[in-house]
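A reminder from the course coordinator: this example appears on the midterm review sheet, so study it carefully.

Given structure:
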């Protein structure tokens, strides 16, 4: 069986619209990505040559990919990678999918990390390693420690480090600061679990497939955030910075937590969607 790319995009995009309630334009874009991935060609090539025939083997690959997507599996897990800050990171179901709003955490941290100076950075809950490895790449003179309590997540992060040939990142398995009781850093960054346990969004979209341990932050969503903020002063040099990502409705609570922990110069920054997303403070 063969078919042209144009016919496949037209028919199967409608299936995605019905199955995942995507806008037709978004569904067509995803179909083009899947079809290109199955043929080892770019989405642009699929768009440019809709009359191209799809070979039988590639059509089978595409159909398998499409079925996974129709069941709701995120595109990033299907492809096994996700771009973050211009870098392709390997991802799987052991880690959160890197999101554009988290790039703001990297941007704010880079403002606090001088170039060509050896300082120590700690990334709490590293997941795929996207934050730690991006900071390490942007600030090669720094030394980065990346922590996660998930063995599977650390394996993914280490694979990414090897692929990027990162030499200035150390990975440790730890429940937050447990494995480094006496170490101190110049900058601590964290994207902790901050979704409330009963949040209805957990039942829809990509988060259905992501690890709950990296999403759930307790009854009100800030249990892990509270723990990090309270313990961070003991692990920061005087004048050091803590930068933390939080939910769109957690800015005030985050600021209060930082004040109570003794931080100053507390500022919250909004993401591209206009939502309060990153709060930082200096000890």
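Designed residues:
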């Amino acid at each position: 069986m063969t078919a042209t790319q144009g016919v496949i995009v037209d028919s199967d995009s409608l299936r995605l619209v019905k199955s995942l309630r995507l806008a037709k334009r978004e569904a067509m874009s995803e179909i083009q990505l899947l079809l290109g991935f199955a043929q080892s060609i770019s989405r642009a090539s699929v768009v440019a040559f809709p009359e191209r025939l799809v070979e039988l083997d590639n059509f089978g690959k595409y159909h398998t990919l499409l079925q996974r997507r129709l069941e709701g599996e995120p595109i990033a897990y299907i492809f096994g990678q996700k771009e973050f800050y211009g870098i392709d990171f390997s991802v799987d179901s052991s880690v959160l999918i890197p999101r554009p709003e988290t790039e703001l955490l990297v941007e704010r941290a880079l403002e606090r990390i001088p170039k060509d100076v050896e300082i120590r950075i700690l990334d709490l809950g590293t997941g795929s390693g996207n934050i730690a490895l991006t900071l390490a790449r942007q600030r090669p003179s720094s030394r980065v420690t990346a922590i996660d309590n998930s063995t599977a997540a650390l394996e993914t992060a280490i694979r990414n480090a090897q692929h990027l040939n990162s030499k200035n990142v150390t990975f440790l398995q730890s429940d937050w600061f447990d494995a480094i009781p006496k170490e101190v850093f110049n900058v601590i960054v964290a994207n902790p679990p901050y979704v409330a346990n009963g949040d209805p969004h957990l039942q829809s979209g990509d988060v259905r497939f992501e690890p709950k341990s990296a999403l759930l932050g307790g009854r009100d969503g800030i249990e892990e955030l509270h723990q990090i903020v309270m313990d961070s002063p003991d692990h920061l040099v005087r004048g050091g910075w803590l930068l933390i990502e939080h939910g769109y409705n957690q800015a005030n609570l985050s600021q209060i937590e930082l004040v109570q922990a003794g931080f100053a110069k507390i500022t919250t920054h909004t993401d591209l969607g206009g939502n309060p997303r990153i709060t930082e403070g200096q000890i």
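The chain has a mean pLDDT of 93. The chain has ten helices and eleven strands.
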